């Protein structure tokens, strides 16, 4: 299906005309987010032990594993009078699961209306009216559970028992080999064709999208493409995109995650 996969980088550059005018089919923000996420998941993850990407862990550290052992998490939204109203138990669990998985956006259908929840900005956006509301994560005390420790635990055992939740399982994941890396190494020309075809599209989606979650996901996927691309492939890609001027505008952004991505792309 990929006829150009059998061609070299220079041959691909000659065959494919340079066309910077890309028309993106109109889609909802959620559809764009899912498409960009799918493209990103087809690429190997960025190495977390690489110093250049260790800052990404700090960007996510503030939200992970905040659930207290003696409390239940319930999400709320703010009404027109400034009062916090709780989501239903099912919706709250859905939001909390996305929060713990470091998702940036999720979509909920409440009373027949579509809502997009931005978990970075903590906002609920009505996709029909574009009305935004503040959302908040609240840990409610669990009064049903006993506050005293079980009698089977001695004082020494209690002192050695960790009171905080376990750390994220990133260390164990980093030790395992990403199968996508092996596939990439075995199919270099197919990867080159993949990047040649989709890099301009991701670049256009980033420039035409207003939602921060889509922009962040585009940048993460672009970073994966750049990191695993060869020098010849990068040269062929960058000839078609004026990415230097775009990096300059990214560095002036008020969103620190966009600034970090700009520095990583520059490096």
TrEMBL record:
Residues 61-137 form the WWE domain. The keyword Transferase applies. GO terms for cellular component: nuclear speck. PROSITE patterns: WWE. Transmembrane segments: none annotated. It holds the Pfam family WWE. GO terms for molecular function: ubiquitin protein ligase activity; zinc ion binding. InterPro entries: HECTD1/TRIP12-like (IPR045322), WWE-dom_subgr (IPR018123), WWE_dom (IPR004170), WWE_dom_sf (IPR037197). Belongs to the UPL family. K-HECT subfamily. This is E3 ubiquitin-protein ligase. It comes from Rotaria magnacalcarata.
